[in-house]
Design goal:
The chain contains 13 helices and 14 strands. It is α/β, with parallel strands linked by helices. The chain starts with a helix and ends with a strand.
């Protein structure tokens, strides 16, 4: 092997190990102390290892949670995980076509973030958006219908994986242009401030989009106008197939705002995410102090998209190590069992019920029809143009505009 290539591989292993390790102290081993609190058992949790600050104080490092909260988070994350694994199967069976970007591994970010917000707050994200659609109140059947191009989907089957949205609960969808949602998120925050309704806008992007110029333009305007926006960088350490250390001279993304406060959070701990977002929303955005940058240290198990095996630029051992040491669902399972809230067997029964619900949603989605000519041409152009639309199977699917 060429000596330079050997040196680069060595550096990749070293830097990768440093980047993928949890924040100092590992929240997986954080101390927990249970005590009675009315009808719902309570648990005190130490999150001191979960935060790193920039130009701001730390959120509370000792928080109180409960059995009902932890179990609800577990159910939500398990549902998302099963949904994404099922989407993988459906894609390989060619029931889902086109682009498909899965979220498994990053569930704690979505669930913890939603626990700190309300549906009046606005969210916009990238094309890795299935779980945000669920967390904003849509159904499994609607998501699977959209993935499979059926009329029962949120965009009547015409948007697919990359363009989920749920207007009723202020989810402004997945954006297919890398980084474009950051400027749109600042615009949502401008609208929130204009209405003076005390709501917050969250604009989510990955480490791969963190070097986009429009992000820095949006941050500048948000800081100038004290907009109530949280810039959320989901750092899963690989922008497509490029490791963060190869694409960013300074990969401390929570410091990228320079003049904007930043907070790095263990994105594999759902409670840390919740309290990090709550701190950013309440202490800065709702208090009229302007924007905040949150970086969630997380990881995706699948490749960038279904066309990416995810194993050519990282080792299987790396993926396996993250699953064993930092998986957000397994860490929460341990916290629930150690607190005596549920046994392992009881949690497995919950997961079996979730699996049945996902399977039922898939069957419901399969029963939804594929858009016909009356639907395919809606919202995209004038009538009587004579234009034609061809489906995936060009010989079998051909629709002429009305």
């Amino acid at each position: 092997m060429h000596p330079l290539r050997h040196a680069l591989r060595g550096a990749a292993r070293l830097v990768g190990a440093q980047r993928l390790s949890p924040l100092a102290g590992s929240a997986a081993n954080s101390a927990s102390r249970g005590f009675a609190s009315g009808s719902d058992d309570a648990l005190e949790v130490d999150l001191s290892a979960c935060f790193e600050t920039y130009k701001c104080d730390s959120p509370p490092t000792t928080v109180t949670t409960s059995k009902s909260e932890l179990v609800a988070h577990f159910e939500s994350m398990a549902r998302m995980r099963r949904m994404e694994i099922s989407a993988d199967i459906l894609y390989k069976a060619k029931l889902i076509r086109g682009f498909c970007h899965l979220y498994d591994g990053q569930e704690a970010v979505c669930v913890g973030m939603e626990a700190a917000l309300t549906y009046k707050d606005s969210i916009i994200t990238s094309y890795r958006d299935h779980c945000q659609q669920i967390s904003r109140g849509d159904t499994l059947a609607s998501v699977f219908s959209e993935l499979m191009g059926r009329v029962g989907g949120c965009a009547m089957g015409k948007g697919g994986s990359m363009h989920m949205y749920h207007k009723e609960n202020n989810f402004y969808g997945g954006n297919g242009i890398v980084g474009a949602q950051t400027a749109l998120g600042a615009g949502l925050a401008f609208a929130n401030k204009y209405r003076k309704d005390g709501t917050v806008a969250v604009t989510m992007y990955g480490d791969g989009a963190a070097n986009q110029g429009q992000l820095f333009e949006a941050m500048n305007m948000a800081a100038l106008w004290d907009l109530p926006v949280i810039f959320v960088c989901e750092n899963n350490h690989y922008g497509m197939g490029t490791a963060e250390w190869r694409s960013a001279r300074q990969p401390a993304y929570f410091k990228r705002g320079a003049y904007i406060p930043g907070l790095k959070v263990d994105g594999m701990d759902v409670l840390a995410v919740k309290h990090g977002v709550q701190y950013a929303a309440d202490e800065f955005c709702r208090a009229g102090k302007g924007p905040v940058v949150l970086e969630f240290d997380t990881y995706r198990y699948h490749g960038h998209s279904m066309s990416d095996p995810g194993s050519t630029y990282r080792t299987r051992d790396e993926i396996s190590a993250v699953r064993q040491e930092r998986d957000p669902i397994e860490r929460l399972r341990k916290r629930i069992v150690d607190a005596g809230f549920h046994t392992k067997e009881e949690l497995k029964e919950i997961e079996k019920g979730i699996r049945r619900a996902v399977d039922e949603a898939i069957e419901e989605a399969k029963a939804s029809p594929i858009p016909g000519a009356d639907v395919a041409w809606q919202h995209i152009g004038r009538k009587q143009t004579g234009l034609e639309i061809f489906g995936v199977d060009r010989k079998d699917t051909r629709i002429v505009s009305p």
